[in-house]
Amino acid sequence: MLALERGGFSLVVGSIYPPLTSIRHPQVERLQAPVHYAPPPPILRLWEEKIRAENRWPEQLIAAHEQKYGSAAKAATRARNATYFAELFARNRVGHFHVHFANRAAHTALFLKAMTNLTFSVTAHGQDFMADLGNDDLLREICAAAEFVAVETEYSRGLMAQRCPDSAGKIHRVYNGMDLTNFVGRAATVQPAGPARILSVGRLVSFKGFEYLIEACEQLRQRNVHFRCEIIGDGPLRESLQQQIDALRLRAVFTLEGALPQDRVIEKLERCDIFALAATSDDKGASDVFPTVILEAMAAGLAVVSTTMAGIPESVVDKETGFLVPAGESGLFADALEILCRDSDLRSRYGSAGRARVEKHFQIETTIRPLRELFEKQSQGTLASKNTSSASPRVAYLIDRWPDYALPAIETELFEVKKRNPDVTAFVCEFAGDCRLTAAMKRLALQLEFLPDAMALEAEWQANPKLVRALEDDRANESPRPPADLFLRQARFALTLRRMFAQRNISHVHATSSRALIAGVLLKKICGITLSASIEAKSLVPRDVIEGALRHAVGGRIADRKLRERVGDPFVFDRAGSNQVLIRSVRWFKPLDLTRRSGFWQEWTARLGRWSTGT
Q1: pTM for this predicted structure
Q2: CA 243, CA 214: separation in Å to the nearest integer?
């Protein structure tokens, strides 16, 4: 995606599911494209209702898939997941979409195409179509519907062509590519003397062959080879692998490190001597077709020991950039490791040759060319979705939690403001899934932007340690300061929102509650935008903290009369907001607003516009 952006493509990224862990690839921060996560399931059901009302719900296709592929394929769920992205892609004028991995996301693409008539393409790897998708008939249907299918090796092209012979002509090899700026190479580092350091990286699953690597290391010890071995990764086999290590009494020389961020993996690669991956196949026939980590090891200037499994020989050249042995042969694997452990000069030659091979064949700017050419053929150039956000300053409404019965008038306010300024965007930090949605809430829900779940927020937090420390230091120097739990929650919201605001040209944020005000202050400091706030009549946030935070705002409304008197201008007393009983009693009359004088919302929207432009 980064290479495509450098080549002039403007991308929109959609993620059906949030990440499973908080470890995030460090290069994500360089991505210009906004990442849109599917909203919470109750909101997706509202999108389904909308698509149904527009007669775009693919009922016949769902029924056909349920009959052909059974309930395990979850056809209705895949279609529901597609509804949000159908609207998102239309709003961003996307002309073609690409699915990475031939798995349930590719299945979702069939329903998205049925709803929108958009063309799509797929990148397939190996385990995705061999195991994850679980049905070759479905794979053939996906390939038939796709404009093209990219695969990462000649080996996988052969596999796909066997499974999908009618689509063989649209299957194209597109190698994984390396950004060599991320690797300094062996020449730039000095390796200390001592035991040979062997590294392996991968998810702890059966087709990675880690049990054979452990067996090979036991043989190395018996042969009096001085070494240390480390595996980076986590997965379901961790406990059994550790038991194998302990049973062979290898704990002193063999370590299961667990999962690490990508920058730490690269650091480990550049500090070891040999990269080893004893790749094999599992009971279902799934295998690691073209392990990216092998290319990363070669880019780092490492000699590689691996197997002749799948597409690995397309990257590693036996006895030139390392050694390849048959899968499952731990004795032969030990022989290859022993040769390299005992011969540092050979390690150096193989490592240099591997780096040269990556430079010649696997640099990202080289490997991306066939994919670029395939994309450019689609939709007469409409693939590159242009950024449709307005160039003029825009206003964000920040909602801490929604629905929130402590803010009974927020739906009316957003209805009135958006009626007068469609460019106002409301962001919901946390969806309250336990609340019943009224008819007005359901209408509003499809206009709201929902932040991703807690795991994605934590990933953003951990990926920005310098900014996190700066925010924490700033809080430590404040007096009064927000309570720690409130600050940490709102700061996580602010870090994620800062990218969303930048991508949407937000210049002013209106915090709709005292809790949202804390995030609003942080966003003002991070993004340099202006801030206003509405403060509810009864707040759980300490009053002195609210007063301190309001010093950062250009104005707003306060429903607490005593607080308004203490703060003074430019804040106004929100008489209507102070009478929540009246608001609740008339909320069912929406869109009529019987709690405010005529012309109030026109004046308020105009004020937001002036704040957003600094006038």
Answers
A1: 0.87
A2: 11
